[in-house]
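Input sequence (190 aa), recorded before submission:
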Amino acid sequence: MTRLCEVVSRGMSISRSGEEVIRNLTARERRLIAQVNSLQGTMEEKEEQLAQLGVFTEYSNIHRDYAACLSDPQSGMEALKRALFIQWIVLTEPSCFTGIGGLDPDSQRRVLEALDTVLRDDRADSELIMLLDWYIRIADWYFERLEEYPAISRFVRQSRGGTPPAYKRSQFEDRGAMGEYWRSLNFAEE
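Predicted structure, token format:
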């Protein structure tokens, strides 16, 4: 029996397989990224355009939907990586460049609880470790204040930080905004 992840979309509750939800969210992110990249103007003008187009709201919904998939056995780890990225990028980049802003606090808490559990239970794969090390390197101030999550706090204290990670661009193909970000870094291997 396949476990399903519950996604709330436009006020309707729908159950789908976690993998199907991830594919759907990837397509939604792809559309938003195209909208963000097509905008012209100053930072303030882009911010206003994104708000008018509903991009911030839609990205908040996408983040919430990733958070709804955290316990899915097939897609939970991928959902965690993508949701964590969205939470991190909203802190580190202006929203006029990402289209991401105004995330739901309950969804953010669920992501941090899931991350804490994964770290506590030693279920983090090497990619999640790499991602988290990088995020801490850039925004240690955010992760250092998460004292209510003991496994995250322990990881922050032990983080390797300083060295850029080694990975192949291809491993981030078609993985939403997270994939676009990691594919854009100039130290990725071809």
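Checked by second reader. Strands lie at 4-9, 12-17.
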